[in-house]
Design brief:
Layout (H helix, E strand, L loop, with lengths): L1 H12 L15 H13 L16 H15 L4 H12 L14 H27 L12 H14 L2
Helix pairs in contact: 2-3, 3-4
C-alpha cells in the first residue's frame, strides 16, 4: 500500500502545478482554453524558464489577468501576444522570433560549439606537433635504459 501511495505521489508531482487561481478562470471554456494556450507561450519574467500558466509569481498572475482582459475585449491570440510583447519585449516569449535582435540568442549555441571544435582541433594539432602524443616519443638510448634499470632495481620494483 505504501509503495502504491509513493508511486501515486511521484506521478502527480511530475506534472506541472498550474498556478491559475479560480478567480482568474474565464466562464467561457473556449476563451479559457485560448487564455491557457497564450499563457503557455509567455515566460514568467520572475521565474524565467516557467510559463505564466505554471508560475505562482505576482507578475505572472498580473500577466494572466492582462491576457484574459484582452481576450474579453475580443482580441485575437496574435493581438494579445503582440500587446504583451510590445509592453515587455521579445524576452517575454518562451519561443522568441528569429530576427536581428534575437540573432545571438539563436546562433549563440552554434557559435560556442564552433569555437569549442576549433579550440579542440588547435589543442590536438599543437600536442601532436610537440610530440606528446602516445607512441610519438623517441626510444630510450642505451645509457637511459641502463639508468632506468638501475633505478628500478634500487627501488625494488
Amino acid at each position: 500500500m505504501r509503495a502504491l501511495l509513493l508511486a501515486l505521489f511521484l506521478s502527480v508531482s511530475a506534472f506541472p502545478a498550474f498556478a491559475v487561481n479560480p478567480d482568474e478562470v474565464l466562464p467561457d471554456p473556449k476563451m479559457e482554453g485560448r487564455a491557457r494556450e497564450i499563457s503557455k507561450d509567455l515566460r514568467c519574467l520572475v521565474c524565467q524558464n516557467q510559463s505564466i500558466d505554471d508560475s505562482n509569481a505576482e507578475l505572472a498572475r498580473d500577466l494572466r489577468v492582462i491576457v484574459r482582459e484582452r481576450l474579453k475585449k475580443g482580441e485575437s491570440n496574435e493581438q494579445v501576444l503582440q500587446y504583451v510583447t510590445d509592453r515587455y519585449g521579445d524576452y517575454v516569449l518562451l519561443r522568441p522570433p528569429f530576427k536581428a535582435t534575437t540573432l545571438l540568442l539563436w546562433a549563440g549555441p552554434f557559435v560556442i560549439l564552433a569555437f569549442g571544435a576549433l579550440g579542440t582541433a588547435a589543442y590536438l594539432r599543437n600536442r601532436r606537433a610537440a610530440g606528446t602524443v602516445a607512441g610519438d616519443t623517441a626510444p630510450l638510448t642505451e645509457d637511459e635504459r641502463r639508468r632506468l634499470d638501475a633505478l628500478l632495481r634500487k627501488d625494488g620494483i
